[in-house]
Specification:
Blueprint lengths: L1 E3 L1 H8 L3 H10 L4 E4 H10 L3 H11 L3 E3 L3 H18 L3 H13 L3 E2 L14 E2 L1
Parallel strand pairs: 1-2, 1-4, 2-3, 4-5
Length: 123
């Protein structure tokens, strides 16, 4: 299983061939997203039709919630990296999720995560 960040999901919906190929190779049953990514996608929807389509597609992936352990890891990441690397709140929550569940992160924004100790970037 891999955790997909928002950039990957957006590029999948835009039909970016390399992302579509990775998703096909991995299989829908092995794709996961954080509720943070779901929220960002919903927030960026252009209209109700797109929102409905996103909801349908996202429902086929595993969704990780923000539990107490994710929250604890998240706060530690912000304390460690917010000032030095400008780690954003959404990225910190996504990184905390990948660390909590020990799964690789598939992102197109490697620079946003590469400095976080323990985060494994897919592939």
């Amino acid at each position: 299983m891999i955790l997909c960040d928002t950039s990957v999901m957006i590029d999948f919906y835009r039909g970016r061939p390399e992302v579509v190929d990775v998703f096909s190779a991995i299989g829908v049953s092995n794709l996961a997203v954080s509720v943070v990514t779901v929220g960002e996608l919903f927030y960026g929807a252009r209209d109700k039709r797109e929102l409905r389509s996103l909801r349908e597609h996202i429902s086929s992936t595993h969704q990780f919630s923000i539990d107490e352990e994710v929250s604890t890891i998240y706060l530690g990441l912000l304390e460690k990296y917010a000032l030095s690397h400008r780690l954003s709140i959404p990225d910190a929550l996504i990184a905390a999720t990948t660390l909590r569940f020990a799964i690789p992160l598939y992102t197109l924004n490697i620079k946003d995560f590469r400095y976080i100790s323990g985060v494994s970037i897919y592939p």
